[in-house]
């Protein structure tokens, strides 16, 4: 029904009396709206959770990248220190031999 039917057309189409049919149609509409509202709330909740998880993941990724950069920097410093220390150790060993 497209909403343009007259009451006589409705009465001819449906065998069930309107006093019984109308409350059932209204209940069906209300149930559908309630189901739709529940789904909207669930969807909104999921969108918020996705947003929060995405932001958290990005924050942790940045922290991990920062930590990796710090580790690289410290490893380079260690290698430089070892390179500087190696000749000094040789000199010390030579001095001990004399």
Q: Could you report the average pLDDT, rounded to the nearest whole number?
A: 90
- Supply the number of structural domains: 1
**What portion of residues is helical?**
over 70%
β-sheet strand percentage: under 5%
Unreliable parts: none
The number of helical runs is 2
The separation of the N and C termini measures 111 Å
Return the structural class: mainly alpha
Give the topology, please:
Elements: H1 7-13, H2 18-97
Structure description:
- The chain is mainly α and 98 residues long.
- The chain has one domain (7-97).
- It has 2 helices and no strands.
- It starts with 6 loop residues before the first helix and ends with a helix.
- 0% of the residues are buried.
- The model has no long low-confidence stretch (mean pLDDT 90).
At a glance:
By secondary structure, the protein is mainly alpha-helical. It has two helices and no strands.
Main attributes?
2 helices, mainly alpha, 0% strand, rod-shaped, 98 residues, 89% helix
